Amino acid sequence: MAFLLLSAAVGTVSCHGQNINSPDTKGYPFVRYESNELRYDSTSAAMRYLLNKMRRVATTGQGTVNIVHIGGSHVQAGVFPNQVRVRMMQRWPQAVGGRGMVFPYSAAAKCNNPDDYRVHCKEKVVLTRNVYKEPEYPLGLCGISVTAKDVPTRIQMLLTDKSVDYRVQHIVVLGYSPQGVLPTLGFDGNEMEPSYVDTATHRYVFNLLQPVDSFDIVLPCSEGQTFTLTGVCLGNRRPGFSYHSIGVNGAAVPDYLKCNLTSDLRLLRPDLVIFGIGINDAHEKTFDTVVFKNNYLALCDSIRKVNPKCAFIFVTNNDSYRKTGRRRYAVNTNGPLARDVFYRLAELTGGAVWDQFEIMGGLKSMEKWQKAGLAQKDKVHFTRAGYRLMGDLFFNALYKELYKLKIEN
Question: pTM value?
Answer without folding.
Answer: 0.92
